[in-house]
Structure formats: structure tokens, C-alpha cells
Specification:
The chain has 573 residues and is of the alpha+beta class. The protein is 33% helix and 18% strand. It has 17 helices and 18 strands. A 7-stranded antiparallel β-sheet has the order 15-12-14-13-17-18-16. A 5-stranded antiparallel β-sheet has the order 5-6-10-8-9. Helix 1 (3-40) packs antiparallel against helix 3 (90-102) and helix 1 (3-40) packs antiparallel against helix 17 (559-572). The longest helix is centred in the N-terminal third of the chain and has 38 residues, at 3-40. Its cofactor is FAD. It comes from Ficus carica. Belongs to the oxygen-dependent FAD-linked oxidoreductase family.
Length: 573
Amino acid sequence: MKYSEFYSFFPCFIALLFSLSLAASAHNHHEHFLHCLSHHISNTSSISNIIYTPINPSYASILNSTIMNSQFAIPPFTPKPLVIITPFNASEVEATVICSKKYGLQIRTRSGGHDAAGLSYLSPVPYVILDLRNLRSVEVDVEDKTAWVQAGATLGEVYFRIFEKSSTLGFSAGFFYTIGVGGHFSGGGFGILLRKYGLAADNILDAHIVDAKGRFLDRKSMGEDLFWAIRGGGAASFGVVLAWKIRLVPVPPKLTTFSVVRDLEKPETKKLVHQWQYVANKFDEDMLFFVRIQTANSTSKGNTKPVLQAYFVAVFLGKVEKLLPLIQESFPKLGLVKEDCVEISWIQAIVLYTGFPLGTPPNVLLDRSKPQGRPRSFVEKSDFVQEPIQEDVLEKAWKRLYEEEVGIAALRLFPFGAKLSEIPESEIPFPHRAGNLYAIDYIVTWDDDGNATATKRHWDWIRSVHAYMTPYVSKNPRGAYLNFRDLDLGRNNDNGTTSYAQASTWGRCYFKNNFDRLVHVKTKVDPTNFFRNEQSIPSLPLRQKKGGGKESWRSQPSTLVWAIVDKLISNYF
């Protein structure tokens, strides 16, 4: 074979060898992995209760039970982990990490299954899933105003367990009750209390984690660098978080909320949305006042065309008598009256904004099953706005909602300011603080029947809206929110060889200058880049060994492939 011929064939040859290598070794690794687990878990009788392989009758139900984004449960994404582990204690997690690392298997850690890109249960290389469903206790200390929350708990379970102990304590975290705290807290955590108390990650006091060496660590033993990194930097890059200690925050016995709907085809409503940009981040810290824009069915007789509506929604940590003057002074054209408002408890507000009718009993938050009871898919993207956007630009953006005919598309405008913006951007990895007026959440959801053409249409729609907004949002970098993970920003190489420069393309969008410190922490605590995924923090290349030679990316599990390639090259050249 001529050099030029081999050179042209070489990339395809490498890909083929790599695929064959993975396929051939996967079965052996699977068997060795299980044997390793049995060696490291002292109570061998418990192993059968935590391990699910493809031949287990419960494998499929366990795998699919918390895939909350249904598009990733069907081809071409269909997840096929070699093993699913559902641990009950830290030692079983430690064993999983040790054995996965020993036999070259990746770990995907799943808490609630809401990962926007499916990275908590998908992998392009042989992998196991650590499903934390059995680690979900919530221990509330009312006197100390703290709680220890295991990473497999959902937000609904956290809120309800706090409510059981106190009606005047809460926690600043997200809206939706089936979201798992393991990923949500580690990515930031927006919620109705963020202008008063900051993000969920701003209120983490301690954590338990299993690191890349299989060690159980708390805040003291992990050190402040790692503790900093896992609060907003995505804990999956650094280890497996088992539990969080959270700071509970005071909430009033009654708060006030309203949701006022206006027709966006009316000029006065368009002006209201535009004016909202100038006031929402300046309100008192007790006020969260956001806007949701989406299409709805027309109520006009004979009109089948959907109409655009703007929902002006607020949660105020106080009585209606104090809320009304604030709105009437700063946003009078909304025309808010007392009858638009309702006074409810904090837990009732959580139930309401999670999607249930007013008056639904709070124990509904304990339901961990999939909402709606049918396959549902979603795509989400994010932006941060630093200057008010012109009215005509906003109008062109929301009119694109008409293009999304089958799914339910929406734009959510979420105000910043107050406590969220007072915290320095380097305090935790989440950097989007002072200087941002509000965040935009672009989202489309649809009933998924596996139609690839329809799925592509939904993706094309959200990408087009996001692209249109480019000139009007944050720049250099264009910011993004980690919990709305966006693989369009860039991704790591599947074999773990991603460079710092490559990862910076998406890393700075999420973390700005905090990305550099995250890389430093990652290199220190996981130098071989064991905990990795399509957007994990990369480790810097290993340095020269003292005895000469180098640690390099050839020492990854693909060593066998490269040994074959080296032999072939030496034979030809």
C-alpha cells in the first residue's frame, strides 16, 4: 500500500478499529465490572437489589422511569448502559466508581432525569448509570434552619419535607417538583425566591461526594476549591454528589401572587412587555415579577388561529396591601387590582407554579412519576439580557411562536437584580450576576411519537429563534445557563482528549472567567479525566514524569487500538 493510500484510509480505519474495540471489550468489561463490585461491596446479598443488567426483567422500566425528555428514549439516542446501579449507601457508590475506573467504563449519574441534553443517562462509549433514586432522604433541622438532602431527592420532596416541619421556612430552588436536586443544585438553581435569597447553589453549606479515587468526602476533607466547583460548576465533572446541606430561608405565613393575561396583538400589551424590561430588576427584593409569552387557542367564535398571549406573573413575599402600591407606582399600565391577586402560603405557591390548580394538596409534590403520563419531549436554550431590547425586535421574536404549530413553544423572561446581583460573580461558578437585567428561557415541548422529522422541526425552530436574538443579548461571551444545557455551544471529544481551547468555546458561555478556576480544580482532583461527558470540565494535560516520558492521551482505554495501529504503520513504513 502506498503512503498516500494509507493516509487517506487512515481516519476511517481508526474509527472502525475503535468501534470494534469498544464492542469487543464491552462484554468482558461488563463481566469484570460485576465481579469487581461483588469484591468491593461487603454485603453481597444486597448486590442483587441494586444491579440491573439488560437481561433483568426490570432493566427497561428502571432505565425509562426517569427519562423526563422522551426524545432521548428512542432511536438514535436510545440509551443502553451495560449496567444500572441503584445504590442505597455511600459504599456502593464508592465501589461503582472504583470498578468503573478499573475497567474503563464511564459513569452517568442520574438524580431526577431532567438533564436537558440527556447526559445523565446517555453516553457514546460503554457506560454504567448510577441511579440515585434510593438516596432521597431529607432531614430538616428547624432550630438550625438547615437540612441534609440526599442527591436522589426531588425538589417536590425537599419542599414538602420542609413544609412538614415548618410553614415559615423554605428554600430557594426551582419550580418543577420532579427535578432531582443532584444536578439542579450543582448547576445553579433558579426559583421564585432567587431575588431574595439567590440561587439554590448560593445556599449550599456542605456536601458529601465520592471523588475519582472512590473516596467519600465532606466539605472539610474535599477542601474549599472542590466545594466551590460543585456549587454551580456541574458536579458530574468532579465526582458523585451524595448529599447537600442546605440553608433554609424565612418565608412569610402568607405571600401574594398574581397572573394577569394580556393579548399580545394589542399595541398596549406590546408596550407593556417592552416597559417591563426597565422595572422588573429594580423592584424590592421581595418581588419576583416575570413574563411568559406563548400561543393559546382563540376564544373568539369561528377563529381557529392561535393567538399570542403575555402572562405577567408575580410572587411577592408580603400582603396584597403592600404589593398593590408597588405595581401601581412602577408599572401602572398593567392595571392590577386586588381581585387579580391571591394570598397563599409558600408551599401552596410551589404547588401552583409547579402546574397544579390552586388548592391542590401539597402531598402531590411527593409524586415522582412522569407528569402527564405520556411521552413528552422538550428543547431549551437560554440567554442573558444586559440592555433593554427594542419593541420591534421583541415582537419579531415572539411572532416566531406562530411557526411552532404542533408543540407548545414559549419565551420566559426572568428578572435579575436584588440579592442575585449583589453576590460577586466569582463567589460560585455561576457568574451571571450584576449587569444582567433578565434571563430568557426559550422552550418548546411536544408529544413525542418518535417522528424524526417532527423532532428536527422543533430543534430547527428553537435554533432559529436563538440565532435571531444574537445581536440583542450578552456578548463576548454570549452567556448560557448550565441547567439549560446546550450542546450546540460545543462539545468534548468522546475519547476524553478534549483540549482546553476546545472546551473554552462552551465553558466560557456557562462560567465566563470562572471556567479557568474550574479547569484548575478538575486537573487537581481528577487528573485522568475519569468523570467526563460531552460538556464536562476538562483536565489539563499531564506533565512530564520525573523519570522521563510523558503521561498522554494514549494511556486512555483505547491503548489496544493504538498498539494495533502502531504495528500496522511499522509494517508499511
